[in-house]
From TrEMBL:
Designated name of the protein: Ribosomal protein S1
SMART domains: S1
Stretches of the chain forming a coiled coil according to its record: none
PANTHER family: 30S RIBOSOMAL PROTEIN S1, SMALL RIBOSOMAL SUBUNIT PROTEIN BS1C
Gene: rpsA
Function in brief: Binds mRNA; thus facilitating recognition of the initiation point. It is needed to translate mRNA with a short Shine-Dalgarno (SD) purine-rich sequence.
Gene Ontology biological process: translation
Species for this entry: Tepiditoga spiralis
């Protein structure tokens, strides 16, 4: 082997000598908690601490090739320090020129701006006035493009504002109204959604422009991060605002509305909303109509929620089309048909039928016989007994039997009777009771100069005069009898005109007392005579 000259040996030693500021290519030989050890081309290793690495320690593996710059040497300990960041920085500095656009990341806040890292290796200064951030804003964590505006030796100044303005200018100069654009959903609000057209320009999709369907749920149509296409419907370069529409990329369902839904045609739709004045029906996406409450009920207006529920599939008749408001006028009841047209085939005077109390009124009650057919029961037809308060006799929703008294087909009215649906209890009274009989009863109310007693086994009312309660003179019957008191009385009088009317009965407690006293006297006299 040919021996090397002294000059060649000197040059090789200089090449392999570890010097501060020298660039070396090496490989990772050990990974520690605070950095990595790198084997250099020359004899010896160097420690690259975590803050001098380009990546996170966890991303390095033993044997990985790496370029570093020696930052510190120590002949005594033999421990050298190096920086991967500086090595990369030396390479990057060739690209760092005024006007260059480079990937940059915020590092820390300074008094008049921010310290940023270009390519995660070279530090630069971002003036606050060029950051497009407010002093109270949080520093962005993601890497972003910035423009180099000044290079003075190792002092580099960058601008985020230049990049944002360039990207905004690119959009506002090249985009026009009616142009179809694509973006990414960035955020969703109640009033619409914001879509990123590029990193620094957002467009608004108003909620009214999401779909032709007015009841659309924006969160069901759009998802953050999803790609969408829309047409620009407003572009204001001065205010830097863009609005786009998704629905206008689809045909307007109202274009041929008269052909699709002619007047008097019957269509099927879904109930979407219920209001006090009616309900809305969607017949197709973007086409909705209103069923006014006057087109819900044939008879007395009731509760709409008792007829339909949101989500119900219903058939409706088209009554009118309003192109200006994009609204159909619909009828629910006309599809069902007017039940009063054939009322004579269903109900006759004298029939006893079942119904439900729809509404209790001060003077009676509305009874629903079937959908669209109701009748009225006057307070006088509620019971064979006196009814002072209708609400105490009936409740909304009660099932009752009623007798049809009268039918007015033209005015769609029907008179009903609850009391006549059962046999008049006074018929039983006159057949089974007579003056002088005893009855048992219970006080149910006070009336004038006496009390009203409900008679057991007959469910009729009898009148007990105050003077027929006791031998003693009673100023106020309430002091002697209480509501609910049970008593035994003697029938003094019964009046019954005919089976269509209620009768009258007068009773006496005092007469029972007298009868019992007379009986006791008779028994005492009889005993005396027997003993004589």
């Amino acid at each position: 082997m040919e021996e090397m000259s002294f000059e060649e040996l000197l040059n090789e030693n200089e090449m392999n000598e570890i010097k501060r500021g020298k660039l070396f290519k090496g490989e990772v030989v050990r990974i520690a908690s605070d950095g990595i050890w790198v084997s250099l081309e020359a004899t010896g290793d160097a420690l690259v601490k975590s803050d001098e690495l380009v990546k996170n320690i966890s991303e390095y593996k033993i044997g990985d090739p790496i370029s570093v710059v020696v930052t510190k040497t120590n002949d005594e300990t033999g421990i050298n320090s190096a920086s991967e960041r500086r090595a990369l920085g030396e390479k990057l500095r060739e690209e760092i020129k005024e006007g260059a656009v480079l990937k940059t990341k915020f590092e820390k806040r300074l008094e008049k701006g921010y310290q940023v890292l270009i390519g995660n290796a070279v530090r630069a200064f971002l003036p606050g006035s060029l950051s497009m951030l407010k002093p109270t804003d949080k520093m962005p964590e993601n890497e972003m493009d910035m423009k180099v505006i000044s290079v003075r030796g190792r002092r580099i100044v960058v601008s985020r504002k230049d990049i944002i303005e360039e990207q905004q200018r690119e959009i506002y100069e090249n985009y026009k109204e009616n142009m179809i654009v694509e973006g990414t959903v960035d955020s969703i609000k109640n009033f619409g959604a914001f879509v990123k057209l590029n990193d620094y320009v957002n467009a608004l999709i108003p909620v009214s422009e999401i779909s032709w369907d007015k009841n659309v749920n924006i969160n069901e149509v759009l998802k953050i991060g999803s790609k969408v296409k829309g047409v620009i419907i407003r572009l204001d370069q001065d205010k830097k605002k863009i609005s786009i529409s998704l629905k206008q990329l689809k045909d307007n369902p109202w274009t041929n509305i008269e052909e699709k839904y002619p007047i008097d045609s019957v269509v099927t739709g879904i109930v979407t909303n219920i209001f006090p004045f009616g309900f809305t029906v969607k017949v197709e996406s973007g086409v909705e109509g209103l069923v006014h409450e006057s087109e819900v009920f044939w008879a007395r207006r009731g509760k709409i929620k008792d007829v339909v529920s949101i989500g119900d599939k219903v058939e409706v008749k088209v009554l009118g089309i309003n192109r200006e408001k994009n609204r159909l006028s619909l009828s629910y009841k006309q599809v069902l048909g007017n039940p009063w047209e054939e009322i004579e085939n269903k109900y006759n005077i004298g029939n006893v039928v079942g119904g439900k109390v729809e509404k209790v009124l001060p003077n009676g009650a509305i009874i629903k016989l079937e959908e669209g057919i109701t009748g009225f029961v006057h307070v006088s037809e509620l019971s064979w007994n006196f009814v002072d308060n209708v609400e105490e006799a009936l409740n909304d929703g009660d099932n009752v039997k009623v007798k049809v008294l009268d039918i007015d087909k033209e005015n769609q009215k029907m008179k009903l009777s609850i009391k006549q649906a059962i046999e008049n209890p006074w018929k039983k009274v006159v057949n089974e009771l007579k003056v002088g009989d005893y009855i048992n009863g219970k006080v149910i109310r006070y009336a004038g100069t006496g009390a009203v007693v409900i008679v057991e086994d007959y469910n009729v009312e009898a009148f007990l005069p105050v003077k027929k309660v006791s031998y003693e003179k009673i100023e106020d019957i309430k002091n002697v009898l209480k509501i609910g008191d049970s008593l035994k009385a003697k029938v003094l009088d019964i009046e019954f005109e005919n089976e269509e009317k209620k009768g009258n009965m007068v009773i006496s407690v005092l007469d029972v007392i007298k009868d019992e006293e007379r009986k006791e006297l008779d028994e005492a006299i009889k005993k005396v005579n027997e003993d004589a």
